[in-house]
Amino acid sequence: MRRQLLVLTLAAGFSPVTLPAQQRAALTNREIGDLTTLLVLEDHRRFDSLALGRMLRDTHPEVRRRAALSIGRIMDPAGRALLRTARRDRDTAVAATVVFATAQLYDSAAIGWLDSLLTNPRTPVGAAIEAARAFGLIRTPVTRTALLRFLAGAPENAPAPLVGEALLSVGRHPRGDFSPVVRWTRSRDVEVRWRATWALFRPRDPAMVATLLQLTSDPEAIVRNWAVRGLTWAQVDTARLDATAVRTRLYALLADPDRTVRTEALRALGTHPDSLSVTTVAERLKDPDAWASVSAGEALAAHRSLAGMTVPRLIAAASSGPSCATRAVALASINTLSPGDGYNAAIAMTRDTSIQCRSAAVTYLRGMGDRVRIALDSLRNDSATLVSTSARTAYSALFDSLAGRAGRGGRGGGGGGRGGRGAIETGKTDADYRRIVEQWIVPDYNGRARPRAEWVTSRGAIEIELYPGDSPIAVDNFVRMVNAGTIVGTDFSRVVPDFVDQQRGIVGALLQRDEVNRHRLTRANLSWASAGLDTGRPGYTLNHTVQPHNEGSFTSMGRVVGGMDVVDRIELGDRVLRTRMLPE
Fold first, then answer.
1. Would residue 262 count as lying in a domain?
2. 20 to 30 A from 563, CA-CA: which of 180, 243, 354, 422?
3. Structure pTM?
4. CA 251 to each of CA 197, 273, 507: distance values in angstroms, whole numbers, following the listed order
5. Using CA atoms, how far apart are residues 231 and 200, in angstroms rounded to an integer?
6. Taking 70 as the threshold, does the pLDDT of residue 313 lie above it?
7. Same domain, 462 and 526
8. Helices (H), strands (E): how many in the chain?
9. What percentage of the chain exceeds 90 in pLDDT?
10. Same-domain status, 394 and 457
11. Whole-angstrom distance, CA of residue 502 vs CA of residue 564
12. 333 vs 532, residue with greater confidence
């Protein structure tokens, strides 16, 4: 009965599963002290083998669980040996967290053990799911083989969340024989089908293009969404499919009832180099839906051979496109195809009512040389700090270029992947950590309703539920900024259709410690942008779609529970107008 409960709960969203609050052992002052110690170790990325080992053997399961979680977050390789001592923990939540932490440490020596968890029907489903996820992080030929063997042999009535996680993990591996994945594209469960489709699309294997083409007729939009992404020109051409037939299907999908499918069909069609496809895409520059017009503008930059046909359309869009985002992306594409042709449009954009458009114009003009001195001079006193600062920077770069000093110095490269884990000055006292534990971790453990916040944006209201027990430091920081009004006025400076809305960095926001947890990066997820673990600071990001490829590297700190339609309508430059924490 308990395994059935776990399966049903996980099927709803692949979220962590714990016992109901009334069945959990109470947290006393001693346990709260241990949880505070663990939070300090996490936040300082300090590996204390004695303290962590002691708490990993504690009589209280929550102390053991959070000790395993801390080991995974600290990411010291010495933690692998400690986690091995906890593999036989009988508490299902602790067992699953031990597997999760093992994956965060990339312990390739644990592959055999993880394989045994994945294939043993007596493994608690939470631990089995984490084992499948681990293989998507460790990623070796052995893990790929193990996942395919599991997917080939699992019965049709295998737990859908477990099969789904295995599909996402195998999709993170390189190309190869994916026939065990294809069988799951015929599953009756849409949650399994879309994950199978994602797994076929993600490696960009031309051998799978024909199957993906068939899947664009699936009755569920989320399956069509992932299938159509595999119909790019490079994939179709390499697979030697009938390109005309594929494009005919893409034209049909431009009228799909689902907006995300239409967007991805437009993007795929935009990679095809024939004049009819390019003309069809260029027509979408006029589309009032920003997802369509922005996607069209980005796609046209790839077609240099047809620049004579596309640049005039891009100039028209940069001058009078339906949104700032459209005008900005059109100008960027002109800069790629024929830089000098965008001069007049850029000068006109310096007078645009949108700050983002004026900033895009500055970015374009800074590469134009002496002829734009007057334009930049007029912007250096712009009342918008973003524009005036950009103009001063552009003017300085222009001056250096004319003086023959360009190319000296430069910015260092950004971090990526899992790197960049330098020291962070937290500024917190022991009392601060104790307060965070008592204010966020303990109530969440006791089953108290999760805190919720409301953002009122230019497009409407968004309600966000936070994960205080799983990301307490991030939640504490978020609530502080909401209550102080610090987020108010922050604009969305990066909006990628059918991917993410990303805020500009919030004034005064500090570098943030990541608290990677067992919540997945789903549609509606709340996180913040970074160049790798422990390298980001808020503004926050809101996902339009799932991001399985980023699992293990970003903090899931909450989710949108109201106003997701608002999230999908947000455009470049939209702002947060009001914020508040909602009463329970």
1. no
2. 354
3. 0.88
4. 21, 14, 44
5. 12
6. yes
7. yes
8. 29, 8
9. 77
10. no
11. 15
12. 333
Q: What is the mean pLDDT of residues 7-34?
A: 67
Q: What is the CATH number of the domain that holds 334?
A: 1.25.10
Two tokens, residue 365: 């003009």
**575 secondary structure, DSSP code:** B
Domain boundary among 404, 424, 450: 404
CATH classification of the domain holding 51: 1.25.10.10
**Residue whose tokens read 């010495």:** 78
Strands of the 460-466 sheet, one edge to the other: 492-496, 500-503, 540-543, 525-528, 558-562, 460-466, 452-457, 576-581
428 to 70, 466, 476, 477: CA distances (angstroms): 18, 21, 12, 12
Determine the pLDDT at residue 361: 87
Measure CA of the first residue to CA of the last residue in the chain; give whole Å.
Answer: 32
User: Does residue 301 lie in a domain region?
Assistant: no
In this structure, are residues 440 and 467 in contact, taking their beta carbons and an 8 Å threshold? no
The closest of 99, 55, 61 to 80, measured between CA atoms, is: 99
Q: Is the pLDDT of residue 98 over 50?
A: yes
Q: What tens digit of pLDDT does each residue of 341-375 get?
A: 998 898 888 888 888 888 888 888 877 765 555 55
- Give domain status of residue 272, yes or no: no
Same-domain status, 75 and 137: yes
Residues 261-274: tens digit of each pLDDT? 999 999 999 999 99
467: amino acid identity, one letter: Y
Quickly state the pLDDT bin for 393 (edges 50, 70, 90): low
pLDDT digits (tens, 9 = 90+) for 45-91: 999 999 999 999 999 999 999 999 999 999 999 999 999 999 999 99
472 lies in the same domain as 398: no
pLDDT tops 90 at residue 386: no
Residues 384 and 527 in one domain: no
> Residue 352 falls within a domain, yes or no?
yes
* In a shared domain, residues 377 and 458: no
* In a shared domain, residues 570 and 482: yes
Nearest 5°: CA angle at 350, between 281 and 313? 20
The residues, any chain, with a CB within 8 Å of residue 400's CB and separated by 6 or more, are: 406, 408
CA-to-CA distance for 468 and 445, rounded, in angstroms?
9
Q: If you compute the radius of gyration of the chain from its CA atoms, what whole number of angstroms results?
A: 26
Q: Which domain holds residue 400?
A: 306-404
- Judge if 399 and 466 occupy the same domain: no
Phi, psi for 558 (deg, rounded to 5) = 170, -175
